[in-house]
Specification:
413 residues, Ubiquitin-like (UB roll), 2 domains, arginine biosynthesis, ArgJ-like_dom_sf, acyltransferase, EC 2.3.1.1, EC 2.3.1.35
């Protein structure tokens, strides 16, 4: 379910960014990987070695930068920087791609004066093309001068990670731990090739909380399962997706563990940051005009509810009906029925917002014009109540439009 900030121990920092947590700078520039002049190389840098955690795509064909980042985090559970390029995925590029990813790590580490093992690398863009390393090298050498601890640095980084995204995606919250203000922030990119199993995107979380690597990894994976693993745009899981978290530990509070009084509050803040970014990715789906939220209640378990919610949100027929503002609940119940989960065929309710269309698996007369107006809105909520247990889950996606086909038909050109 979505996080109600009015009842949580954290508050949203409206003018915050990934550089708001203590110790972080960021920036971006154009090095020439993109055909336009939009930024295509960016970095987040921490002034101290930060506790690190990562979650990665489940695609078998994992891009070279994932190997580098896994290795960096595994070495000591620490990162001091993450270097990201857009415009080229450096995926399916063989030994040359691996060598390029390692060179990016080593060159940027030298440029900012940190050990190579403290640098993560991420790439996004076209698959199967070698990086233009002559351009990347020049960009890396110029990047340190672009790093900034304020909003310009954060904006530069967010611009540098975009591909077909239409908007930057960033969020920041703060909470109190042991009488001290702790900040959690995040930035992400993602618009196409989005599907559960890590979702398909790049995500970056910064915080000044004091927490160990194993504890941060556990919380990040938990937050991912409720957020990034619950979105879909087009059913495709990419080769490059990763979510990396860095905790500078520069706020002087007792280290966060499950025994800490603030553990649940910090977990809620982290999950909220991930949820906002995940929903922003779904809303910014390629060609999308609407954010679609599917809530499933009354399932035999939360896992079962999640499987059903993801099946409904991923249905091309459901997504097409939402685009056309067609209150075709038959497509919704058909998706529920093929999700491979326990369902009582006689007890299902379906609502579109507040409009009841099915009750106890029987059609309910509703005003088609009212439903049409609701479905024309920019956010559509589909509620499915199975009356079969206590499990619940929420998934997010978008409508399927003509523009999605247009964008992806010419992605390389």
């Amino acid at each position: 379910m979505g996080q109600d900030t009015a009842s949580t121990p954290f508050k949203v920092v409206t003018n915050g960014s990934i550089t708001t947590p203590k110790g972080f700078r960021a920036g971006g520039l154009h090095c020439g990987l993109k055909k336009t002049t939009r930024f295509d190389l960016g970095a987040i840098v921490c002034e101290v070695p930060a506790t690190a955690a990562g979650v990665y795509t489940t695609n078998v064909f994992q891009a070279a930068p994932l190997q580098v980042t896994r290795e960096s985090i595994a070495a000591e559970g620490l990162l001091q920087a993450v270097l990201v390029n857009s415009g080229n995925a450096n995926a399916c590029t063989g030994q040359q791609g691996e060598a390029d990813a390692y060179e990016m790590r080593a060159r940027f580490a030298e440029a900012i004066g940190v050990p190579a093992a403290h640098v993560a690398v991420a790439s996004t863009g076209v698959i199967g093309e070698n990086l233009k390393m002559d351009k990347v090298r020049v960009g890396i050498d110029g990047l340190p001068s672009q790093l900034d601890g304020g909003q310009p640095g954060a904006d530069g980084f967010c611009q540098a990670i975009l591909t077909t995204d239409l908007v930057q995606k960033m969020v920041c919250v703060e909470l109190e731990l042991d009488g001290k203000i702790v900040t959690v922030a995040g930035a992400a990119k993602g618009s196409g090739m989005i599907h559960p199993n890590m979702a398909t995107m790049l995500g970056f979380v910064t915080t000044d909380a004091k927490i160990g690597s194993e504890a941060l990894q556990a919380l990040l994976r938990q937050a991912t399962n409720y957020t990034f693993n619950m979105i879909t745009v087009d059913g495709d899981t990419s080769t490059n997706d990763m979510l990396v978290a860095m905790a500078s530990g520069l706020v002087d509070h007792a280290e966060l563990t499950p025994a800490h009084d603030g553990w649940a509050a910090f977990a809620a803040a982290l999950r909220y940051v991930c949820e906002v970014l995940a929903k922003a990715i779904a809303r910014d789906g390629e060609g999308a005009t609407k954010l679609v939220e599917v809530q499933v209640h009354g399932a035999v378990s939360d896992d079962s509810a999640a499987a059903i919610a993801k099946t409904v949100i991923g249905s091309s027929l459901v997504k097409s009906a939402v685009f056309g503002a067609d209150a075709n609940w038959g497509r919704i119940i058909a998706a529920v029925g093929r999700a491979g989960q326990p369902v009582n065929p006689a007890t299902v309710d379906i609502r579109l917002g507040d409009i009841v269309t099915l009750q106890q698996s029987r059609p309910v007369a509703f005003d088609e014009e009212v439903a049409l107006e609701y479905l024309k809105g920019d956010t559509v909520v589909i509620v499915v109540d199975l009356h079969n247990g206590e499990g619940s889950a929420t998934a997010w996606g978008c409508d399927l439009t003509y523009d999605y086909v247009r964008i992806n038909a010419a992605y390389r050109t």
